[in-house]
Input
Amino acid sequence: MHMADALISPAVGGAMWAATAGLTIYSAKKLKENVDEHIVPLMGVLGAFIFAAQMINFTIPATGSSGHLGGGMILAILLGPYAAFLVMASVLTIQALFFADGGLLALGCNIFNLGFFPCFIAYSFIYKKIVGEQPTRGRILLGAMVAAILGLQMGALGVVLETLFSGNSELPFSTFLLLMLPIHLGIGIIEGLVTAAVVTFVWKAHPEIVTLAPSSPAKAHSHKPLLIGLALFAVVAGGMLSWFASTHPDGLEWSIKGVSGKEELDAPQEGVHGAMAWIQEKLAFLPDYDFKKPEEAKEGMAGKEGEKASKGKEEESWPAVSAGKSLAGILGAALTLLMAGAIGFGLRRYYSHSKG
Amino acid sequence: MGHIESSLLNIGYLETLSYQQTPLHRLDPRVKLLTTLVFIVAVVSFGKYEITGLLPFIFYPVVLMAVGNLPPGYLAKKILLAAPFAFFIGIFNPLLDRAVLVHLGPIGISGGWVSFVSIMIRFTLTVSAALILIAGTGLNAVCLALEKMGAPRSFVTQLLFLYRYIFVLTDEALRLARARALRSFQGRGMGFKVFSSMIGQLLLRTLDRARRIHLAMLSRGFDGKIHLLRPLHLHGRDVAFFLGWSGLFVLMRWFNIPHLLGNTITELFR
Output
């Protein structure tokens, strides 16, 4: 379920980072409003509990495989949505840093998929509605099941959409969806069962934990500002993403534009392209480097850098790559790797010598 | 159970690596965090059929591993362990995208394979950059950098707390699992009922512990903030590290260095 950096584009990663950062700041603010610093160590320890609990596996009957706790729902039930979202964000950050589960750029996506959906949507709009103020065993089971399943389905849908918008995977939308949703239906059922079982266990031992915690942080607040913010974000992100989908501009060009804050968003193709061609002309110490000239003379004139920059837009131009270019590419690649290895080895020798 | 112990050891080992004194570890954590982000953005911004252009980026992890005295074998193992997700999503590309993209003499290679290899290279690069960040900096310093760069305070506090108690609670879980294993003759499958009451038990212990921690903190004057006592100073070498690598990334992003290199060589031998 953790997205990897390799599968997402900077635009999607950046947009989801922005969304997650907004949610984190919002949750932190909400948390500060009802100041009860008892919750600070509780959050930390419960986050660690999720880790510890994930390390104990149980056997799923009749399948031979094993499952473990995911955690988003249980945190929301015990802590309320805001604190639970922060805990989930921290758990995913640690997983990204220490276990390489999902990358740093994909962290925004992962926190959104696994934190936002269960904590803010599934918990607030499903679990709380079902369980209400007076929990019973049956209600807890039903609420946890439905909320866990739907929360995970939404998360899986998030993964599919983010992968799709990034365009690195060839999987068509429907196939990917049919792959992800059933798998996560199974995972959701297990998650719901575990959540319900653990919550019931705790509820029997210490009923005040389960009945008090949910109502305290999120009692009087409406979700209105959050929903408005999300709608705004959806519009902005949707606009941005569709712009990306339509023109396929180079990701880095886009981010550089973002940093320099220039306004002319329609001009860059020409500008960068032109600049590239110019640099290419200046640097072309080997103008006719190919064994056999490419069919399209234009392609050849724009040169290799130009081709790279334009590749995103016209992917048909790629098949023009010929054997000569491939050979040069492979040779260059091998040399690069060799050099990297040599430098690494040399540095290591150097530092171990200077130390000992 | 071996699983629990080994993952605990794993976190511990990364932590130990971050205690070293090398030029990499002495750099300002903010600079390392930013450089890692620039690196990742540069790597993922390539088009989906790019392979050669990505390769020069391997210099960054290789050089940092050497300078920071980080064990390449260990990091490689961690990368492999994390690979399945990217692998299973990527492996569909060769099945679905069969148009021949590159000719190597008589052999045609389909676009799907090219993009699959590209995904795996990106995966290796981005994951190794993240692991190097943590092994070369340590989580506490990363948190400090995050806070100085404007992350919400409660999030940073949460990260620090979480990290501190992972070790404690994993120990607790380990004790529970061991006690059960000893009483069940290493019973192979753990049923759902046992599992859920074990997790519930662990949760109750966790809540108890949280209460104890809170009291202990209150009696030591806790006011909702964790004070990180380590002043950060940007030195010339920090700025040089950031600008140097970022400049290099931009350069490598724009110029396909292996291509240029390969062309030079083929030209020489023609």
Observations:
- Chain A has three domains: 5-247, 257-321, 326-356.
- Chain A touches chain B through 118 residues (CB under 8 Å).
